[in-house]
């Protein structure tokens, strides 16, 4: 019996090794392909890193540019043109220019600054509707609070009035003072409306 068991085990091992070889041959890639793919991935990662680094350096340069321009007394330009507009004329310019020249310089500076037109927002109507809804919701909430306060106050007054009307003398008779006050209150309410 031991010999037959060993033969079946050997057959199973052969089958497993054949399956493994067939599977691994299909899944295997050549060494050249592996190296080439690894190089592509590395190149892409390096490209992304360089691009990110360049963005950071550009942002730093722009920040320092704006800072220097502000210190010098100019307003930092925006976009590709980077036109410099003087915030206030320096002391040297005031001495050299008379008032008519200063006005001309200001007019030229105003003419040079181009106001950008804002792009039309395709969702403008939706935004306005949403804002209107928010305003209505706030008004509704305030109205609700106000109504709740009024209801609470009326309830409080009613409880107080009931308490006074339920008061009795020693002999169990209602106190007429409170009854008369209640009737006067009702008459005043009728005259108001």
Automatic annotation (TrEMBL):
| Listed Basic residues bias regions | 156-171
Q: Which InterPro entries match?
A: Fyv7/TAP26
Residue ranges annotated as compositionally biased, kind Basic and acidic residues, are 83-102, 126-155
Q: Map out region (Disordered) in residue numbers.
A: 1-27, 77-177
Q: Which domain of life is it from?
A: Eukaryota
* Name this polypeptide is given: rRNA-processing protein FYV7
In its UniProt entry, the species of origin is given as Cylindrotheca closterium
